[in-house]
């Protein structure tokens, strides 16, 4: 392939994931390409049906391509986990129809929602010739895989929520660090210069701090101080400490981790924050809790759970239920692997390709993977007004 030639995923059907792939002798020009054709297709025969019914078998194979991919999903798990797993499976089938059938042989394994089973299946896939593993969705299993060594291990595109990533084990889902960085960048782009980070103590605190500091530096803003806080004291001590360390910041970022942000927001409110001079930035993790009046006025960068880009109409037509962000994540990962297999072949899943700084554009928008396994995303920027998210900007990112 000539240098400078634009690389596109095949578009046998309506939509292919747009790829920007950088390789010696295979250079994508102009940054991230945007090959999105929103034309609808008819539902493939025999594929209509909702996500409620479980699969007929624990292992299923899709496609006839030469590139072997394994996908690990909780197809028969009870409750929400199983429902999301079956949605992801439907998304994988749609992506295979759109782009992957002639490029990939996709083996889908049922983890049953069990982390031990997911770990065993992942190790088996890694050691038996899969070029890429998509999944698992179970956090302990993803964390376990990230501890495994081996220079020849194929890349893993983990679908676990709140997974920080690891070398060669990439976090696909939006993380708190990415949400915080993008939210901070959204205000820095509007002229805010001095920021404070209040971050819940825990294993992810350092990652959040690094990402926020880096995103602010891009806009000429600074992270004046980071104050870790314990959920046990409600954050009041941290807010007092912040006041003694920083004189009138432009914005305070609250990364609350697993806990509710309400206690520390109450402590901030007692100091008149937010106010005319000081804004508050939240994260996607806030939205895991009931909307609280204390959230009012805060800014948050997060994915729109209802926005799945141009695949939405075709997905509904095919499966008789609406797509959500879980569908979008799964579709994008299958389409990404197919696109790379098409552009550079079955052995093209190198760090250089997957960590391409130009990134990839899919149904969840622009994203890219970092060397530490974390992901960076462009996403909508909102302000909470009257208990609801009001769009401030269609896109912001911390990179």
Task: Give structural attributes.
6-stranded mixed beta sheet; signal; alpha/beta; 22% strand; disordered N terminus; 399 residues; single chain
Short overview:
By secondary structure, the protein is α/β, with parallel strands linked by helices.
| Strand segment tally | 19
Characterize the main sheet.
6 strands, mixed
> Structural class of the helix and strand makeup?
alpha/beta
Q: What pattern of helices and strands is seen along the backbone?
A: EEEEEHEHEHEEHEHEHEHEEHHHEEEEE
Query: Helical region count?
Result: 10
Whole-Å distance between the termini?
A: 30 Å
Give the % helix: 25-40%
**Average pLDDT, all residues:** 85
Query: Which regions contain 5 or more consecutive residues with pLDDT less than 50?
Result: 1-49, 52-56
Strand order in the largest sheet: 4-6-5-7-8-9
Q: State which percent range the strand residues make up.
A: 15-25%
From the alpha-carbon coordinates, what is the Rg to the nearest angstrom?
A: 21 Å
- Described by the principal axes of the CA atoms, the overall outline is elongated
Textual characterization of the structure:
With 399 residues, the chain is of the alpha/beta class. It has helices at residues 79-100, 115-127, 139-147, 176-188, 205-218, 236-245, 262-269, 312-319, 325-344, 351-354, and strands spanning 18-19, 22-23, 26-27, 59-62, 67-73, 104-110, 132-134, 156-158, 169-171, 194-200, 222-229, 251-255, 279-281, 299-301, 360-362, 365-369, 375-377, 379-385, 388-396. The strands form five sheets. The protein has a six-stranded mixed sheet with strand order 4-6-5-7-8-9, sandwiched between helices. β18 (379-385) and β19 form a beta hairpin. α2 (115-127) packs across α3 (139-147). The longest helix has 22 residues, at 79-100. The radius of gyration is 21 Å and the shape is elongated. 50% of the residues are buried.
